[in-house]
Specification:
80% of the residues lie in helices and 0% in strands.
């Protein structure tokens, strides 16, 4: 019992000390924030940044950008603000701040880094392929602009690697869309306009992706979806379109086998060809 009371007392003491420290820090920060001594406020913001107190640093730097406008400190404050937002995980704000820095100081001391981190921040916040890819497209454009402006940068190789990675994400988005259309076509099961339009949408989505990304590592996957969609479209066609669509499906199957002769899906292509021939009567 005595030991338990001792532990409780120590816990209370530690809690009180922690509370006092936090209160003291908050009081000190508020005093700095309200002071008219801009140099002191600037140095304190740099100290907060160095200590990893990025939100406090950002709060001070937002005002200093305007208050020290026209000085070197204003330029550094703007870049440091971007880094503080980036380090705290506010990637959208960070990208906007870095973009503002590069636009304001295109030949500034931190121009190269700001240009790179405009894309890097968007890269960090880019969503998974199933979601809206607007940030991904923004990151690709930012990286491309960085490489255009700084072709000899030591960061170029990393930017290019990230750019390719982001492009793959866009390709995945298209592949998931094409697959979804194909699955929806099979979901309806009967001959109807929804069934047909979904298979057509799958074909168009996959074909457009192959045109835009001809060397994608998912080329076979897109080609497979086109082949399967054309076959299913023929299977579910009305009588007046049936023969024409089976011929189109057969041609697609031969094209798939020519391009991917060693594919694990080659037997599927051959099975489709055999069925098409029976219907067409070749």
């Amino acid at each position: 019992m005595q030991l338990k009371m001792s532990v409780m007392k120590k816990t209370v003491i530690i809690f009180c000390i922690s509370a006092l420290i936090l209160t003291s820090c908050a009081t000190e920060f508020n005093q700095v924030y309200k002071t008219d001594d801009l140099s002191y406020r600037y140095e304190y913001a740099k100290q907060c940044f160095a200590e990893g107190k990025y939100e406090r640093a950002a709060t001070l730097l937002l005002d200093l950008i305007t208050l020290k406008k026209g000085t070197d400190e204003s330029q550094e404050s703007l870049y440091m603000l971007g880094m503080a937002e980036y380090m705290s995980g506010d990637y959208e704000s960070a990208s906007a701040t870095f973009k503002k820095y590069f636009k304001t100081y295109p030949k500034g001391y931190y121009a190269e880094q700001a240009s790179y981190y405009t894309g890097q921040a968007l890269y960090e916040g880019a969503p998974e392929p199933r979601l809206d890819q607007t940030p991904t497209i923004g990151a690709i454009n930012a990286y491309q602009q960085f490489m255009d402006f700084f072709p000899n940068s030591s960061l170029r190789e990393k930017a290019q690697s990230r750019l390719f990675e982001l492009q793959d994400k866009l390709v995945q988005k298209e592949l998931l869309s094409a697959q979804l259309y194909y699955n929806l076509g099979g979901y309806f099961g009967n001959i109807n306009s929804n069934n047909e339009s979904n298979y057509i949408a799958s074909i168009i989505t996959a074909q457009n992706a192959l045109k835009q990304y001809p060397y994608s590592k998912w080329r076979e996957d897109f080609s497979l979806l086109i082949m399967k969609s054309k076959y299913e479209l023929a299977e579910n066609s009305s009588e007046d379109k049936r023969i024409e669509r089976y011929r189109d499906a057969e041609d697609e199957c031969y094209g798939f086998l020519n391009e991917f002769p060693e594919s694990k899906n080659a037997p599927t292509a051959q099975k489709f060809i055999n069925k098409c021939k029976k219907v067409i009567g070749d």
